[in-house]
Amino acid sequence: MSNIHQNRRSSFSSSTKSSLAKRQAPSSSENSVKPMAVMTKKRAPLSNITNQKNGSRLPNSSFDSVHCSNKSAKLKLAPTPPVCVNAGFSSNVLPLQKSVVPHKVASSPSKSDDGSVSMDETMSSSDSYKSPQVEYIDNDEVSAVVSIERKALSNLYITPTSETIGNYCSRDVLSDMKKMDKNQIVNIDSNNADPQLCATFACDIYKHLCASEAKKRPAVDYMERVQKDVNSSMRGILVDWLIEVSEEYRLVPETLYLTVNYIDRYLSGNVISRQKLQLLGVACMMIAAKYEEICAPQVEEFCYITDNTYLKDEVLDMESDVLNYLKFEMTAPTTKCFLRRFVRAAHGVHEAPLMQLECMANYIAELSLLEYTMLSHSPSLVAASAIFLAKYILDPTRRPWNSTLQHYTQYKAMELRGCVKDLQRLCSTAHGSTLPAVREKYSQHKYKFVAKKFCPSIIPQEFFNNS
């Protein structure tokens, strides 16, 4: 095994300045992707990384981010048909000839004889989607529009959104917000102004995620039952390398979590050789990037990242195999999905600095990706346990769990004990691990150096008692 250590380290240290392909922004005149091997100096191959024990090392390097090129397009807008008034509406309607008049148009499209307009060559395709600003002629017509809208809402049985002052998530738990004590439940869905939070549907969304996470989970014993040539150590090396790849290409965290999910689900039913394990990893990351990223890396970049160990056709064939085996069911609840919600629940009581708590929880959750045995815990349980341990590390003197977290995670403190102990072991041994990608990632300033925080070896038993 010592030779394996040396071979792996020597292959990675042979070129410390070009460990991964640097993504170059394409010029406007080029539509095809240049081979990355021509653009950047080659480094030592990463083939058969699963034959080696230590994790790969990628030097810190900067690269130009790739932007999606905007292409001008011609767009024809058909003439607007006359408005048909439903006979069922008894209210007054706007006259067709003067209901609204254009107030301002961003550009001057040329008008054809048939009434359609075609976009000028200099116009951006995005400009064509902008609705022209309009102004109403008089107040009578405005009242007519309001009357029509009211009639439509009545016919469709659409009721306006009403704020729930006393209760929240009343479909699941009836909790009186007026009865406030030290174990109060904070309403984290009260901010309806931010559409990104989906406050109106948040309860339904996470209820669905909890119900569907069991359907998209890999087998917890596939290494012993299915695989013959690979083991859990090789899986850890692959995931450690993929974490470095995601950092180098600045992929969103959801891409990494989905990648590991696809790998484990595929390995749960398909025997694979160690020579193809890295090929499976890059194929799954390419699928996950297409699902999550705005500008996903090209297949040539994934080939180059393995120093062209695999051909483009091999990567595409493996991608097809994975998609067909998973039946194109790419949506899967991951630890990151639940962690986003649970961090908001933890922030509701403001017991720790917000950014530091979030970084610490993300650090603990990513450590769980390296460990094969963590598959025995559901993603929601890992996310809840990561919050518990993160709060305890940042403030060991206070009880990490409370009624708010119990309500939104649907886990009692006692139910977290086993998973928290496993995560605590990973944090305690992270500094001596041969897979340092996560630790080095979260030892940076942008992640608040949370990987350098001391993890206590003992958690008081009373913290797991249900309050």
On the 0 to 100 scale, the average pLDDT is 74
Task: Please bin the fraction of helical residues.
Answer: 40-55%
Per the principal axes of the C-alpha atoms, what is the gross shape?
Answer: globular
For the record, what is the CATH homologous superfamily label of the domain at 335-464?
A: Cyclin-like
The first-level CATH class of the domain at 335-464 is given as: Mainly Alpha
Order of helices and strands: HHEEEEEHHHHHHHHHHHHHH
Total E-strand runs = 5
Distance between the termini: 49 Å
Strand coverage percent:
under 5%
Low-pLDDT stretches? 1-47, 53-137, 158-168, 170-182
Secondary structure class reads: mainly alpha
Domain Cyclin-like: 240-324, 337-425
Biased composition (Low complexity): 10-19, 107-118
Domain Cyclin C-terminal: 333-456
Family: Belongs to the cyclin family. Cyclin AB subfamily.
Describe the structure.
This protein is mostly helical. The chain has a domain at 335-464: Orthogonal Bundle (Cyclin A, domain 1), CATH 1.10.472. 40% of the residues lie in helices and 3% in strands. It has 16 helices and five strands. It is globular, with a radius of gyration of 28 Å. The two termini are 49 Å apart. Mean pLDDT is 74; it is low at 1-47, 53-137, 158-168 and 170-182.
List keywords for this structure.
467 residues; mainly alpha; Cyclin A, domain 1; 3-stranded antiparallel beta sheet; two-stranded antiparallel sheet; globular; Cyclin-like_dom; Cyclin_C-dom
Structure at a glance:
The protein is 40% helix and 3% strand. A hairpin with a 5-residue loop joins strand 3 (110-111) and strand 4.
